[in-house]
Amino acid sequence: MKEYFKNVSKISYEGPESKNPYSFKYYNPDEIIGNKSMREHLRFAMSYWHTLTADGTDQFGIGTMIRSWNNENDKMDLAKARMEAAFEFMDKLDLDYFCFHDRDIAPEGKDLTETDSNLDEIVTICKDLMKKNNKKLLWGTANLFSNPRFVHGAGTTCNVDVFAYAAGQLKKAIDITKELGGENYVFWGGREGYETLLNTDMEFELDNFARLLHMAVDYAKEIGFKGQFLIEPKPKEPTKHQYDFDVAAVLAFLRKYELDKYFKINIEANHATLAGHTFQHEIQTARINNALGSLDANQGDPNLGWDTDQFPTNIYDTTLAMYEVLKNGGIAPGGLNFDAKVRRASFEPEDLFLAYIAGMDTFAKGLRVAYKLLEDGPIENFIKEKYSSFNSKIGKDIIEGKIGFNELEKYALENTSIENKSGRQEMLESIVNQYILEDK
Ligand code: XUL
Ligand code: CO
């Protein structure tokens, strides 16, 4: 088989003392942290679209990326070359999983029939390469947003022909995800949202979106697809207002339409920050609602108001994200998908490796620090103590549902001194810093 990344050989763990940029400093896949290996904790995945398909195009200029597989002129030859390059990349980086949209891996044909047969041809190749290289599909998804037919949305479109097309495409995407043993299936609402309510029936669109998802649930049952369904929230982009705004909005939607037992949530860091939340806030919101499904590992730029999809390099954020994952008892069957792209000026193929190394090391470090923080318990103990007035006497009575307003009013009238204690935020932030700095 052709070699696509000739200048890079297998990346291995060399430890924090190494100065070799093509080595892991913190990600040591087989090192045991607590009860499982780093590999099992982190379940890293490659995003097919940003890694293989994207060419660096932006609103102001054409692509810049040097990618050897782009020499292929025929669309299907290009798709095949990409697929081979994908497995070489995963092998060299020791990535166990990948994620794709149907349109990332195979080109659209002249109609849905030809498109589906293109997909079938590539899926056969993919399945074979997965077996040979021992790689797994974390999740599949359908691209229901790039083609102009989805101008008014897919599940939320006003055009029934488009709704039917979306359902057909979705059915096929679930089929191939099952065929490849996908452990999850993601619904990110590409153009499910609106620009103006002057031309939008929000209630009708949401009802229809729920109808499409119910059909997906029924179809998964029909074919015996056991993967976890996930919704990925995002507050804006491409539409001004995306319906799946954030974790809380998605939970409310799922509960209203009785879809909550079938769906969990795929949380992306940059989507969280666009919604005005931290990544940790979104993960915790999902966790306490038993809805944490998977993570799209990336980061935004605090100075920019759009989805920059950068590789995660902020240890503070990855520490707090992994803290939540550990408190959740792990992320499986989800994983950490690098929904991240190299900058347009990082156009050499080597940059892809350097970017993944940066992201994987940053999450590995976050995992190590989070594990120690949880084991020693400075934050947990502080929080426990902070609410301790609810552990006994009248506090306990409230928790046990034994009393109401009358008893509480009596208590308040008799209690002449209320004393509060400090929240100690700065001390806690400094403890997190100390754990980050001390971990070697
Ligand atoms: C878009 C985004 C998508 C989803 C999958 O912002 O995050 O790539 O992850 O459709
Ligand atoms: Co994403």
From TrEMBL:
Q: Which cofactor does it need?
A: Mg(2+)
What is the free-text note on the cofactor? Binds 2 magnesium ions per subunit.
| Class of the enzyme per the UniProt entry, highest EC level | isomerase
The places in or outside the cell where this protein is found are: Cytoplasm
Name the keywords, alphabetized.
Answer: Carbohydrate metabolism, Cytoplasm, Isomerase, Magnesium, Metal-binding, Xylose metabolism
Molecular functions per Gene Ontology: magnesium ion binding; xylose isomerase activity
What PROSITE patterns has UniProt attached to this entry?
XYLOSE_ISOMERASE
| Chief place where the protein resides | cytoplasm
Is the RNA-binding keyword given for this protein?
A: no
Active site feature:
H101, D104
Q: Which residues bind Mg(2+) 1?
A: E232, E268, D296, D339
Residues that hold Mg(2+) 2 according to the record: E268, H271, D307, D309
Supply the NCBIfam families for this chain.
PRK05474.1 (NF003998), xylose_isom_A (TIGR02630)
Subunit details: Homotetramer.
PANTHER family per the record?
PTHR48408, XYLOSE ISOMERASE
Q: What is this protein called?
A: Xylose isomerase
Q: Which organism is it from?
A: Clostridium tyrobutyricum DIVETGP
